[in-house]
Amino acid sequence: MEAEIADKPSFAHIRVKLDPGDSIVAEADAMASMSSDIEMSTRWNGGFCSAILRRVFGGESLFVNEFTTRTGGSLVITQALPGDMDCFELDGNTMFLQPGAYIACEPTVKLGLGWAGFASLIGGEGLFRLKVSGTGKVWFGAYGGIFSRDIDEEYVIDTGHLVGYDPSISLKVGMSGGIFSSFFSGEGLVTRVKGPGKVYMQSRSIGGLAAWTNARMY
Amino acid sequence: MSTADQMPSDVQFEITQRPDFGLLSVQLADGQQIFAEPAAMASMTPNAHMKAGMKGGFKKTLGRMLGGESLIINTFTAQQGAAEVTFAPGTPGDVLHYHLDQNTLLLQRGAFLAYTDGVELTGKWQGAKGFFSGEGLVLLKASGAGDIFFNSYGAILEVDVTDEFIVDTSYIVAFEDTLDYRVTILEGMKVSSKIKSFFFGGEGLVCKFSGQGKIWIQTRAVNPFLSWIYPFRPTKNNN
Amino acid sequence: MQHEIQARPAATVLKVDLEQGESLTCEVGAMIAMSSGMTVETTSRQKGGKGGLMKGLKRMFSGENFFLNHFTAQNPDQSIYLGPTLMGDVIYHPLDNATLIVQGASWLASDPGIEVDASWQGFGKALFSGESMFWVKCSGTGDLFLNSFGAIYEVDVDGQYTVDSGHIVAFEETLQFKIGKAGKSLIGSFLGGEGLVCKFEGQGKLYCQSHNPPSFGKLLGPQLRPR
How far apart are the first and last CA of chain A? Predict the structure, then answer.
């Protein structure tokens, strides 16, 4: 299988070429176009409970599409938001992704739902996070460009900008400034991450776009 | 590329993810400050102390209020060492740096992102209102000496005006105050501007620039976007 | 008419240089900036072939029509900058006595010599019910400019190719097509999240966009103030 991320960082999408017998697992709604020799089948996205939970809280659908081919073919996989995409390869390790950030993976990757903790919920990042483990490639995306920081101590991230992080990172909710400043600054509560480990962030947030749009709405 | 890219600066910064999702990263020296638009901060080191406040006192704040910006300007100060703050605007688009050296820049509301000490930001209201109480041409005036960072919706094009040039008001990001400008309705669009207003909620206004100076225009605008997203908004009946 | 496509690939803008007497047609709202020696005239086209004449204010604002501006250079060396509504790219596809079917929101501008017919109904009503998509049949000879939400990629169809409906930018009229379900079974398709897809057959050029405007709208929409 050949998979290439094209048009980074603005409208990243994956151009996939599958050899006979190859398959790729992708988020529902992610297929933009495909050649006629690609077959799409739908299967349950992991165990029953975690799939339901993911649907209700995590923003992922209950089902994923598995794209296979007997004779070989190509397809284009995309995301709903304009922005960047990146890929990492798991080798028995684990990564956490914000639920909306997952796009596709090789069939050998295990998808699960993790409890992100109340700090994550209060900090605006949701109650659940997606846990990817096993072996194989995982493609994830963002709204905006993806940038990362290798954290030793602590780092502050505004709501809506967190994309993914190493399991060694812990999350804590905090105020962006003093009490008055936190709420009058427009920043509110923020997520404080504690290292060591790597954190992936996005340079835009849907909340930021919604706020901008609402302010100008008629 | 813009000539603003080659200007000196008082603060160490980097603009990445250009030109579509521009992210401004500022490295503040111990004690150094930067003043920013509310909610613009994307991430920062914990020693970048943030304070919400009204910079410049009440009178200047009132001027800014008329300029359409909110009352609050956030101040970030590096304490106990150097600090990093990254800023992200709400829309996809670029971020540009301009160094003021006792000259004046006029900016559209919503275009200002951040500025450093030495820059004075005040509101200037250009009263040509449109059919709806929309934006008209609401300008901020930046003068003094220091750095100013402004953002766009879409990419930024720099145009050197030497004679006359017409820009739809929703696409103006910033311009040098050496230019003369006049807001008007484009001839021949008198009939259509009513239609346009209804569809896009905008005023169908254009700004005629003359003289010599630089204009920065953006390649996307809010009104067509509002019109496009309208059917996707939740309706009051079924929430 | 000379043109330049700038600020690619996501905030793309089209710059057109017109000689005295030349004209360009584009949708109302697309003009960003222009030199001062131009005049403009507005007309309208009916969407989706609803039939009958344009009557009354109510019909005008119902979304059944789309409005065109015709810019004409009165002086020599005029230029105009045009921008699409959404982030994305712009592509130049000149027509030479040919026909291209273009997704309504993807038509940016054309030479007045090209006929712009917004009443084409080849896909039927079922395809985009509720999402106000319409299709524009462009035919004749002259310059034509399209825009996309996302990156534009070209597919030279020779046999069969499937596209999720929201990803179609434009296609040559020589292609045949069938609207269908993506997966093997109805349930699989529906629950899998894939909507209707368009299976193109035959030979011809197809322009696709990497991103899907309704998917983006559905993600942002719920976070906005109700209407």
Answer: 49
